[in-house]
Amino acid sequence: MAILEGRNLRKTYRLSRKNTVEALKGVEVVIEKGEMVAIMGPSGSGKSTLMHILGLLHAPDPNHGPAPELYIGGENMASLSDNARTKIRARRMGFVFQDFNLVPTLTALENVTLACDYAGIGGKQAKQAGVAALALVGLADRADHKPSELSGGEQQRVAVARALVNKPEIILADEPTGNLDSERSAEILALLRQFNREHGQTIVLVTHDSEVGEACDRVIRMRDGRIRTAITGAGAPVMAAPAVAVPA
Amino acid sequence: MRLVRDLGRRKLRSTLTITGIMIGIMALVVFGSMANKIDALVKGGSDYYKDKITVSAKGGFMGLGGVLSTRMVAQISPLKGVDVVVPGVSMLLSDEVSGVSMGTPSMIQGSVANADQGREKFAMHYATGRALLPSDEGSNVVVLGSDLARQKKAKVGDTVTLRNVDFKVVGILEPTLTAPDNSAMVPMVAAQELYVKTLPALVADKLNTYEIATGLVVYPKPGTDPEAVANEIDAKVAGISTMTGKDFDQQIGAATSMLNAILIGIGLLSLIIGGLSVINTMAMSVAERTREIGIKRAIGASRWRIRREIVIESAIIGLIGGLLGLALGFVITTMGNDAGRESSTILFDLTFGTAFSSVAFATILGAAAGFVPAWSASRLDPVTALRYE
Ligand SMILES: Nc1ncnc2c1ncn2[C@@H]1O[C@H](COP(=O)(O)OP(=O)(O)OP(=O)(O)O)[C@@H](O)[C@H]1O
Ligand SMILES: [Mg+2]
Predict the structure, then answer these.
(1) CA gap B115, B185 in Å, rounded
(2) What is the number of alpha carbons within 13 Å of residue A92 lying toward its C-beta?
(3) Are B257 and B249 in contact (CB under 8 A)?
(4) Looking at beta carbons, which residues of chain B come within 8 Å of A163?
């Protein structure tokens, strides 16, 4: 069953009247539930832009071509309000970014429970979940540390804990290992893989690191705002996937 | 707690902003307390003069000025609408006018006890001792107002010196927040004897000491319009001027409400400046936290959550500034009153209402100042905010 499905995804950034950047030029992407997928491609090829659209942070452009479609777990995301999209991000998605992006004034535990708070879980329950998530990433003893008191790798593990704490269906990670050495990268990747295996979470990650790509089930390759090749872990072309029925 | 920690992040700037609010609220508290005091004085006067007519010598005011005679009682009593006429002698406690004299100067008031025949409705309560009696006429006894008693450190049974004459204290009044607090009430004869000594010998020789009055209080018959009675007295008696409750309200009330408006205006002005500084602080802190707001939005904080966070933080700045300003205002008004007590110049009346509304106002101002930056923060595009350096 496809958990993420997008068609005709376009995005044009308008810097000025004349200067526009076509970041996505009509992308079709289908990601199955429980898959761990890497998006790879040269810088500027539109990987982050696609990630933002799949993560409901940006809406695809509606004009200049066939109507864009975006389904999450079969639900149409086309005309959702900002509030509804925010709610889905809070409850059904987890995000990891390249530069850790923790709130500097909050402790590690508070950073993690912030995600619970936004998902509508508070108090003891949130604290328990937060402590468990930190334990999972091996930082139980750093719960009361501020981000500035943690190493880069540790900060990114806190960010992973924050992304995992609500056990979301989908985790979107934009170059989660981009600022880490290979050893720390492997740690983060192993964590994501473990979670993907144990809880069947769908993971989409953008990476420049071909080793990371190889560790995933499948790599989606982008170039110049389009998907170039896409192969499944088994080597079969992914274009077979749209055979899955799409709810209209 | 998180919010308080956020304030701590930029200590200097938060401190400056809080100081701005603090000074504004302090000004509001101090000036507000001053206005309260003036209001209480005026209200007391207004209550006192409401149901009576005060007769003074022409050119005089409120029973001060030229000399009248107790014989005028016979002249005024038969006039239409007049019920009871009480002659009295008023004089300043001291001829030296003491620097700033806000409110009422200290006075000696003489009249025969109970001469009003129960018509006086202005209630006076005795903290200790007793009221003056008709039988006190001829002896030097005094009832002191609360501020005056405190100033002279006098208790019932003590002897105080008024214009170089010793008086025995028989009673001390509860505070009224108005004129009697600064007054020494003495029997009529004692007042006449003190008064005659203040006159030049040439004038004094021509007067019968025991007929001296500086003013007369006229109580109209119940149900009679005091204005009509005042007009009647003005028409029939030469060399005097009358004042009714309405005259008092017009002359004193109008002047003081203007003064109060100016005082409160100064306080509000300083607060508006404080409020602008909160907007500035919050706008800067939002700009600084752009990235953090982006993270929060990305991981699921609604626009409403972001707005609420900033408005609350800003309201806390207002609340802290308000509480500190109130504390400072309290210290200033208390010290001011302590210093003024020496000369019976109580300038401030810090009421619960003034205290509460000042702090509430600071908090609301803080929250309101947070709205603009909160709104712009909540409109940030999360992706753009995340990229922000
Ligand atoms: N906010 C923006 N305003 C204008 N142009 C943008 C914006 N964001 C992205 N772009 C442009 O869109 C194109 C695709 O950008 P995107 O960030 O998706 O690339 P990417 O594949 O993630 O690259 P990288 O590997 O360097 O992160 C680029 O040419 C980029 O300059
Ligand atoms: Mg990118």
Answers:
(1) 14
(2) 14
(3) no
(4) 299
Q: In what order do the strands lie in the sheet with A218-223?
A: A93-96, A170-174, A202-206, A36-40, A218-223, A226-231
DSSP state at residue B134? G
Answer whether A150's CB lies under 8 Å from A108's CB: yes
Which residues in chain B have their CB less than 8 angstroms from residue A89's CB?
Answer: 298-300
Which amino acid is residue B213, in one-letter code? A
Query: For chain A, what are the domain ranges?
Result: 2-98+170-232
Nearest in space to B137 (alpha carbons), one of B111, B176, B108? B111
Q: Using the beta-carbon criterion (under 8 Å), do A103 and B292 form an inter-chain contact? A: yes
Ligand 1 centroid, distance to B383 Cα (angstroms) = 11
For residue A222, give the ligand 1 atom closest to its CA: 21
Probe site for chain A from B299, B303, B310 (most A CB atoms < 10 A): B299
Distance (Å) from the alpha carbon of A235 to chain B's nearest alpha carbon: 33
Which ligand does the CA of A11 lie closest to?
1
For residue B179, give its domain range.
53-243
| Domain A2-98+170-232 class, CATH top level | alpha beta
B22 plus B63 within the same structural domain:
no
Structurally, chain B folds into a number of domains equal to 2
Closest-CA residue to A60 (of A76, A42, A83, A73)? A76
Q: So what's the ipTM on this one?
A: 0.88
Q: Is residue B280 part of a domain?
A: yes
| A96 contacts A201 by C-beta, under 8 angstroms | no
Whether residue B47 lies inside any domain: the answer is no
Which residue among B215, B243, B271 closes a domain?
A: B243
Tell me if the pTM is above 0.95. no
Ligand 1 in reach of A45 Cβ (< 6 A):
yes
What is the Cα gyration radius of chain B? 30
Q: Given A87, A90, A106, which is nearest B299 (Cβ)?
A: A90
Per-residue pLDDT of chain B (389 residues; tens, 9 = 90+): 566 666 666 677 788 888 888 988 898 899 889 888 888 888 888 888 888 899 988 866 555 567 888 888 999 999 988 999 999 999 988 876 554 455 567 899 999 988 888 888 887 889 999 999 999 999 999 999 988 898 888 999 999 999 999 999 999 999 887 888 889 999 999 999 999 988 888 888 888 999 999 999 999 998 888 899 999 999 988 888 888 888 888 888 778 888 888 888 887 887 788 778 778 877 888 888 888 999 999 999 999 999 999 999 889 989 999 999 999 999 999 998 888 776 666 788 899 999 999 999 889 988 988 888 899 899 989 988 888 76
**Which residues in chain B have their CB less than 8 angstroms from residue A83's CB?**
302-304
Report the helix count and the strand count for chain B, using DSSP H and E.
13, 12
